[in-house]
């Protein structure tokens, strides 16, 4: 038997599976000599061994060439993607942004090779949106300061206290620069309720009239009603635990990656309650809750919340109500908020379409590879 053929045999899935089943030792797994010697080695004639080795060597060279070409392609693609996204970030106004976005849109499949890469584009869209970079100002919409005064007066009629926001302090906490016609607010300046922690009762394995959400229901940034459990407890009709359509849910404890994750509850009244590891906030009607959600999902807000989480050395860091209440929220006029949300939703739809195409492309490539391998070993 040639040493080259034996080398390929010992790299085969059959041998690796066998060796893995026979290894022992926790810190440094080992394979006993007797177990290695006990494995049945396939031994074709010498001439066939040589032909097999030559063929495998040839295929390996082809694979090496393909990997090198793919690496060069990814390098060029990364430079193009960085340049295109940088143009989006640096665009001075809606027209320049539209031009930069058109360049990205026209070259989606060149700039993005894998579906997971689209996540960065979604983040960039949200970040541009909450800095006033994706829609043109309309003077007739009014200003953020106009809206802030209207919210203050509206909350006063409800008996909700108002703490005048310190624009300079909020801007420093956020690290963002706003258009001059926007204003700053803390989340507490916009809230008619909360933030307030929920309650986590024991679940039951039979249907009841009340469901309690799990953390997974909001981890993705979207509300997913299927991630809930039945509970068999009486919840008073006027309890703060009941969720109403449009309530904002914020995770107060999770891994550092997800602490502060937010979603907007969409569902029927008095059907779901929220758990202790979440906080609920209900915002004033003069604010578009979808825009507030965009702000909570932005990089600036995620950074603000993570920096103020306690216990970050552990697996479940926490943020408290005061931190959440103090979250900086950029505030354009209400009509501008609505136009921003509409634009973001349209752009996210393009991202969804791109992601679906890339996943289909990856699935096709996987099937082709599997077919080639099957043909080779047939």
Tally of separate helices? 14
Largest beta sheet: strand ordering: 2-9-6-7
Low-confidence stretches: none
Overall geometry comes to extended
Largest sheet geometry: 4 strands, antiparallel
- What is the distance, rounded to the nearest whole angstrom, between the alpha carbons of the first and last residues? 24 Å
Gyration radius from CA atoms, angstroms: 28 Å
Report the sheet-strand fraction. 5-15%
Structural class: alpha+beta
Number of strands: 10
Order of helices and strands: HHHHHHHHHEEEEHEEEEEHHHEH
Helix amount: 40-55%
**Mean pLDDT, as a whole number?**
84
Task: Draw up the topology in text.
Elements: H1 3-10, H2 13-22, H3 33-38, H4 46-90, H5 94-106, H6 108-111, H7 118-129, H8 144-157, H9 167-174, E1 183-186, E2 191-197, E3 203-204, E4 210-213, H10 216-219, E5 228-231, E6 248-251, E7 262-264, E8 272-273, E9 278-283, H11 289-297, H12 299-307, H13 321-325, E10 328-331, H14 334-377
Parallel strand pairs: 4-8
Antiparallel strand pairs: 1-10, 2-9, 3-5, 4-5, 6-7, 6-9
Helix pairs in contact: 4-5, 7-14
Give me a quick take on this structure.
The protein has 378 residues and is an alpha+beta fold. Helices cover 51% and strands 11% of the residues.
Give a verbal description of the structure.
The structure is a single chain. By secondary structure, the protein is an alpha+beta fold. It contains 14 helices and 10 strands. The mean pLDDT is 84.
């Amino acid at each position: 038997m040639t040493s080259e053929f034996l080398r390929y045999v010992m790299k085969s899935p059959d041998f690796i599976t066998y060796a893995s089943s026979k290894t022992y030792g926790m810190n440094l797994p080992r394979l006993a000599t007797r177990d290695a010697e006990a494995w049945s080695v396939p031994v074709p004639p010498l001439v066939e061994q040589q032909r097999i080795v030559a063929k495998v060597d040839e295929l390996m060279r082809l694979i090496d060439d393909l990997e090198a070409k793919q690496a060069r392609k990814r390098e060029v693609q990364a430079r193009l993607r960085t340049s295109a996204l940088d143009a989006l970030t640096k665009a001075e106004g809606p027209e320049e942004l539209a031009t930069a976005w058109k360049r990205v849109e026209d070259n989606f499949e060149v700039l993005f090779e894998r579906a997971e890469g689209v996540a960065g584009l979604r983040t960039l869209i949200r970040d541009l949106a909450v800095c006033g970079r994706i829609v043109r100002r309309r003077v007739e919409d009014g200003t953020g300061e106009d809206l802030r005064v209207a919210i203050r007066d509206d909350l006063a009629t409800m008996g909700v206290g108002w703490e005048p926001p310190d624009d300079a302090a909020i801007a420093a906490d956020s690290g963002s620069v706003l258009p001059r016609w926007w204003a700053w607010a803390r989340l507490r300046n916009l809230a008619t309720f909360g933030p307030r922690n929920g309650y986590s009762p024991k679940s039951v394995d039979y249907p009841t009239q009340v469901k309690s959400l799990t953390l997974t229901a909001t981890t993705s940034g979207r509300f997913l009603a299927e991630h809930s459990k039945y509970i068999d407890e009486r919840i008073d009709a006027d309890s703060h635990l009941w969720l109403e359509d449009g309530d904002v849910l914020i995770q107060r404890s999770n891994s550092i990656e997800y602490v502060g994750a937010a979603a907007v509850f969409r569902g029927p009244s008095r059907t779901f309650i929220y758990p202790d590891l979440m906080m609920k906030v209900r915002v004033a009607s003069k604010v578009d809750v979808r825009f507030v959600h965009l702000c909570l999902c932005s990089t600036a807000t995620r950074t603000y919340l993570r920096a103020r989480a306690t216990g970050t050395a552990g697996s479940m860091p926490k943020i408290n109500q005061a931190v959440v209440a103090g979250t900086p929220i950029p505030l354009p006029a209400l009509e501008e908020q609505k136009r921003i949300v509409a634009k973001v939703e349209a752009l996210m739809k393009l991202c969804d379409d791109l992601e679906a195409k890339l996943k289909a492309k990856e699935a096709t490539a996987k099937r082709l590879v599997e077919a080639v391998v099957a043909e080779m070993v047939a």
